[in-house]
């Protein structure tokens, strides 16, 4: 290969890095990095989910982790780039505990970004492909136990005194995907869910709910959606898929089970978890406890003055499931993000007279536009180019959060230009539109606060056509017996008010189940510390408390959309497996400033 080819450049750079790190020459290794550089590590070096920004931060990380990590066998597997573009290279490496994979970018011969991820633990690899289990044992055996008998015994054991190593609270997509990862790694785990069956968390939502993200973005680990699966999945179809997945992956899943309390024994390093399963008390004592209750905690209600005078019904969107009971009635939806739009559409389809009360601006993007412009690595065209979902996930992870805003702003500049007429019509209704304080659009809002945006799958046209009313930018003064009076003196009549006002942080679930003290020691979940509205500093560079060790030992948070749950479930599972096997996991963390 010509020595100016991207692969040769990357291989030479990586060989230099490996040689210098192998000799413990951290200062010389840093000479290979640009001044404005980033090292994102997922478990491989730090046993954490952490991004080091700048040479001093990278140096501090390496000084703390290099000797015990002992990275070696650095190997470029593919590379791309031209004379005017950065070189991007994929590589593999080994550590003292396992095998890793990463991506780096070189600009003018220096590394601008590098991603390192732990992919497997030596001696504890997943039994996949050529190492898959034999399954049925051929031959005659009078004492043979059928697969169904073995599974029944395994399921029964946890109800008869046996304890799992890990207990997952929450049996939606996040808990299910983590359960599958743990199962593949041989970690005994039980998933508990208040709903009766896997998938009910989707089935029980409002009738019009569909996935807003395309199918290529939403695969579950090990069993991707088939090639005939629709681009956008209806909620009940998604529920059925999750139920099938639990059975196919042989997960121990306890539906109809509520976790009432949990306490941690510092000496024994185990939890005592009290459950109510089908009305009967059950106690489990797992070593690891995972909260997988979505990306959020309990519903967030806003105070409505005069609520005691209102003659109608007030409920939260999480309590809403079907618009048929509201046909012919006047319904006010307070809120203007995703759930508010979806609920408003469902009510309109049922024949209700719907008005949305918008308290703050919303980022809106048309589903068709987002699919075409923002999912270039998650698409049929990407699959045809050889980019499967795991490849796409790593490509996305290779850009540190600090560098995302500029990319997202450029994307939303294109989106706004393309759909300028759509936005003009939407704003003409009085709808308050924004693209974030720094014009970075939906994705940065999702990471920073998980709120304030809507992927348009039909509601915006109803608003433009006047089919869904808008009352925007005016505070609620009080509820009246027959509706809502606003600060400008206007009134809206209402039979029902639905608060689509979001959810609290996941750590509030910990406060309810474990203790207020434990929850406060952990702090809020989600957000980057960007200093923007509802995402206060300090800067974290990663999602707060998600997918990594937190202030409370042996407690984890797993959740987010399907894509985040899929990707990070691997790293949560590896961290838990390492602890089960007694592999040292010294967590590298630095104080936030």
UniProtKB/TrEMBL annotation:
Pfam families: Pyr_redox_3
Keyword list, A-Z: Oxidoreductase
Region (Disordered): 126-148
Name of the protein described by the UniProt record: NAD(P)-binding domain-containing protein
Organism this protein belongs to: Mesorhizobium marinum
Record-linked InterPro entries: Auxin_biosynth/cation_transpt, FAD/NAD-bd_sf, NTF2-like_dom_sf
Superkingdom of the organism of origin: Bacteria
């Amino acid at each position: 290969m010509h020595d100016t080819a991207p692969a040769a450049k990357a291989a030479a750079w990586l060989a230099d890095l490996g040689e210098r790190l192998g000799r413990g020459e951290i200062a010389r290794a840093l000479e290979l990095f640009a001044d404005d550089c980033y090292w994102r590590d997922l478990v491989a070096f730090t046993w954490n989910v952490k991004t080091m920004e700048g040479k001093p931060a990278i140096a501090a990380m390496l000084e703390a982790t290099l000797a015990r990590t002992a990275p070696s066998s650095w190997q470029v597997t593919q590379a791309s780039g031209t004379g005017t573009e950065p070189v991007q290279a994929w590589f593999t490496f080994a550590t003292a505990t396992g095998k890793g994979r990463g991506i780096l970018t070189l600009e003018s011969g220096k590394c601008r970004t590098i991603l390192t991820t732990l992919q497997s633990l030596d001696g504890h690899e997943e039994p996949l492909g050529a190492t898959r289990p034999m399954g049925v044992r051929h031959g005659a055996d009078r004492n043979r136990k059928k697969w169904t008998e073995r599974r029944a015994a395994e399921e029964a054991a946890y109800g008869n005194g046996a304890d799992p190593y890990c207990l997952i609270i929450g049996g939606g997509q996040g808990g299910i995907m983590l359960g599958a990862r743990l199962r593949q790694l041989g970690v005994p785990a039980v998933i508990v869910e208040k709903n009766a069956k896997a998938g009910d968390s989707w089935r029980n939502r409002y009738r019009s709910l569909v996935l807003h993200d395309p199918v290529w973005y939403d695969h579950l680990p090990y069993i991707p959606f088939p090639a005939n699966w629709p681009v956008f999945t209806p909620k009940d179809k998604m529920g059925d898929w999750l139920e099938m997945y639990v059975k196919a992956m042989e997960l121990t899943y306890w539906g109809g089970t509520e976790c009432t309390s949990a306490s941690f024994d510092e000496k024994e390093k185990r939890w005592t978890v009290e459950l109510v399963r089908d009305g009967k008390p059950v106690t489990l004592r797992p070593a690891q406890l995972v909260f997988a209750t979505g990306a959020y905690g309990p519903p967030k209600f806003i105070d409505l003055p005069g609520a005691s005078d209102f003659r109608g019904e007030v409920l939260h969107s999480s309590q809403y499931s079907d618009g048929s009971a509201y046909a012919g009635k006047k319904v006010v939806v307070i809120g203007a993000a995703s759930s508010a739009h979806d609920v408003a559409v469902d009510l309109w389809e049922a024949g209700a007279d719907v008005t949305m009360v918008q308290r703050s601006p919303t980022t809106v993007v048309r589903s068709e536009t987002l699919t075409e412009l923002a999912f270039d690595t998650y698409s049929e065209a990407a699959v045809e180019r050889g980019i499967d979902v795991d490849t796409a996930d790593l490509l996305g992870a290779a850009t540190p959060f600090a560098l995302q805003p500029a990319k997202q702003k450029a994307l939303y500049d294109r989106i706004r230009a393309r759909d300028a007429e759509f936005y003009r019509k939407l704003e003409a209704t009085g709808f308050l539109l924004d693209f974030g304080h720094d014009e970075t659009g939906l994705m940065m809002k999702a990471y920073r606060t998980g709120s304030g945006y809507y992927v348009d799958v039909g509601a915006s046209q109803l608003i433009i056509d006047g089919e869904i009313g808008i009352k925007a930018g005016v505070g609620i003064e009080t509820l009246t017996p027959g509706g809502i009076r606003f600060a400008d003196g206007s009134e809206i009549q209402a039979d029902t008010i639905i608060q689509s006002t979001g959810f609290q942080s996941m750590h509030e679930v910990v406060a309810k189940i474990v203790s207020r003290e434990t929850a406060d020691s952990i702090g809020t979940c989600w957000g980057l510390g960007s200093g923007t509205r509802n995402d206060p500093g300090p800067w974290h560079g990663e999602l707060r408390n998600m997918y990594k060790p937190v202030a409370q030992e042996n407690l984890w948070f797993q959740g987010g959309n399907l894509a985040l749950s899929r990707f990070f479930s691997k790293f949560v599972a590896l961290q838990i497996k390492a602890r089960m096997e007694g592999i040292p996991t010294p967590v590298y963390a630095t104080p936030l400033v």
